[in-house]
Design goal:
Strand 2 and strand 3 form a beta hairpin. The longest helix has 38 residues. It is built from 2 helices and 11 strands. With 197 residues, it is α+β, with helices and mostly antiparallel strands. It folds into 2 domains: 115 residues, no CATH class; 40 residues. InterPro entries: Ac45_acc_su, VAS1/VOA1_TM, VAS1_LD. Pfam families: Ac45-VOA1_TM (PF20520), VAS1_LD (PF05827). It is found in: Membrane. Belongs to the vacuolar ATPase subunit S1 family.
């Protein structure tokens, strides 16, 4: 795939050439295309060659990336073909880059496979999922805490918690004591101790 720009200042016949290949992969059961090499030509000769890395997409799709560049700050998807090559003197950056070499219909790009590992939509989805998980964990913690409080109050309010008094004890709280003609009474309820009258 060649982009011909003609004469630009002192560059005569500037051409950017993309070398694309297509391959069939049995694992994905479809054909994929790859950009293997980028060449810069001017004055009718090749001046710089870059090897492309990680620029591939299914053959029925197009490939899109915000930056395809030879610069490290843009993740350097274009690498000079050799250390001694003149391409090291060139800095190439494509902004809002989209390419499709095969299966083009009606002159329009097909659905694009994006190069971004984390697009803004994916990032927002992950952040929202994290927030929802934190809220769920907090709610579960509170529910478990409320259950333990319920058990505590059930234990305090249960009839078995309070000491039961027998009916016979209620009727005979005091019993006369016979002790040498002096009448005295003993309270049977041991909670209050013994009182002699």
């Amino acid at each position: 795939l060649s982009l011909k720009f003609g004469d630009i200042d002192n560059l005569k016949g500037l051409v950017i050439r993309f070398l694309l290949t297509t391959s069939y992969y049995q694992l994905s059961v479809q054909s994929w295309f790859s950009l293997h090499r980028l060449q810069l030509l001017y004055n009718h000769s090749v001046q710089a060659t870059f090897n492309a890395t990680r620029i591939h997409a299914p053959a029925s799709y197009s490939y899109h990336c915000e930056h395809v560049s030879s610069l490290q700050r843009y993740d350097a998807l274009l690498i000079p073909s050799s250390a001694n090559d003149i391409s090291k003197l060139w800095e190439v950056t494509f902004i809002d880059f989209q390419i499709q070499g095969f299966n083009i219909q009606e002159g329009h790009f097909a659905y694009a496979k994006d190069c971004a590992s984390f697009s803004p939509a994916i990032l927002m989805g992950l952040v929202m999922s994290l927030i929802l998980l934190l809220v769920l964990a907090y709610a579960l913690h509170m529910l478990i805490h409320l259950k333990s409080l319920d058990r505590h109050y059930e234990c305090k309010a249960s009839p078995a918690y309070f000491a039961q008094m027998k009916d016979s004890d209620m009727g005979d709280e005091k019993e006369p004591l016979r002790n040498s003609g002096i009448e005295s009474y003993e309270l049977r309820n041991q909670q209050f101790g013994k009182i002699y009258i």
